[in-house]
diguanylate cyclase (Marinomonas pollencensis), 569 residues
Amino acid sequence: MIGAAFRSLIYLMTLSLLGLCASTVNAAPSALLIDNNFDQLEQFQMSYFVDKSGDMPISQVQNQRFTDSSNSINLGAEAKTTWAKIALKNTSDTPITLYLHNSYAYYNRAIELNEVVNGQVTRTRLLDMDIKDTQESMYQGTAVFDITLAPQQVTTLYLKNLAYIYQVFSLELYSQDASKRVLINQNNDITLIVGMILALIIYNFFLFLSSRLKEHLFYACYLVSGGFWIALSYGLFASFFDVFGSITLKWNIALGTMPICLLIFMINIFETRTKYPTEHKALLTVIAILATNSIYGLFDIIKALEYASTLAFIVLSISLCVTISMFVRKHPLALLFLIGHSLFITFSVLAVLFYQGRIGFSYISSHGVGIGILLESLVLSLIIANRIRALETLKASQAELQLLASTDPLTKLLNRRSFALEANQLLRQDKQIRHPLSLAILDIDFFKNINDTYGHGLGDRVIVRVADVLRQQCRHQDIVARYGGEEFVILMPNTSIEKAHVLAERIRKVLENATIHVDQQQLVNFTLSVGIAEVDPTTADLQAAIEQADKALYKAKNNGRNQSQLFVG
């Protein structure tokens, strides 16, 4: 008996609980109270009904069971025709005009607004995004409907939203002044995001033009497609250019080019073609799938965009796996790319779940792809900066190696080989304009005795001193080199043999008075012998001029050293 009574009690409690839950879910929200002080309602309760038939008349819709919700709705791809129901009561004794905003109007195919009083439709407005004559309620991508509430009367709004793919809309109520303020300031955030991306696009295009490095071009293309899709998807094109409807639907094909450009960028910076064949094949496979879907979108854009959600998960998964593989392989750019791509993946997954109606309506979820693109773009710009620094370091190293290869390590003057290259280039130029050129060979007198007496360390100091004096005394256009052990050479453009003799004498006299400290008490002096020859302007034969200057040098040596001699043919 007690058991039967207990079971009956449980049964009754269960029925009561179910009845309570049902009444809570299905009960229509009470009417929103509007008075003369009304300014705005951006968050309120309403209800919605999904018309699976797609063509239910308003008379039949009024008798359907609506589901309570907030004023912002995302219901996925299975709710292409959805009715929103809002009850408004004017509690004042005068008429009140307010404005209903649908800020996602550009995202829909058509919107129909019915005003119902006491079960009778008093006013109906149709907004079709492809019919110009119906678009008087569109303002910068937002549908704005004026509604006049009679005193002490309840008006129920039935708003029909026809979506192309995913059902997303957000409704707000404003006074006239508040409506104007909101419309003026709308899309400031998207404008800022697109502006930042545009700056990165311009910067990377200029980098590509100056460096011809493909990663700048691929990254700029990724930013172009991403920025275009953000401007399209979040209403910037609708706001600035009144572009919406089936035209913008077709332009959504740009969504496929964005990941393609990103994957090509990955192939380039990670050099997968030559270094990581497995990862390279995976990225190429995904690119082929995306390209196929984009081509298919030219024929059936709606179906292609429905496939895009599934493809997004595939692309994100494979690109993440490749990035992790690069990180495990200790690729120097993998960590930054992993951080940026993880941010993009996180926000993109939120966006996909949002459009599918699996998570609630919020700014982050509704703008997930745009936020993800911006954050990834900023992090990828660090990769670009890292690459630029690495290339500059490499160029500096190459320049240093080239300098080492072309200069004498002790004196930092040109070596014999580099002197010949630069001198011959200069001779080819001067041969055309017939400027006089002179060449001088300088040799340190008794240098072997200096090395033998004081050691090679002091001998090196003598050579360095000669090199320093040559740098100080020679002109900027003169080509100066260490030609051999203790031998130096100067090629003087636009210089007659007499002027070359003046320069040689000045150098010789400076070094004649120079001293090198052996220790605190002992000093060493040294001198130079110089041979000078003029280069024949008709032949510009460098070797012949060197041989002539060498003969003049031997003459200076034989005449007692510490002097300059001219070659006389």
Observations:
- Confidence is low (pLDDT under 50) at residues 1-28.
- The domain at 416-566 is CATH 3.30.70.270 (Alpha-Beta Plaits).
- Residues 193 and 374 are 7 Å apart (CA to CA).
- The two ends are 142 Å apart (CA to CA).
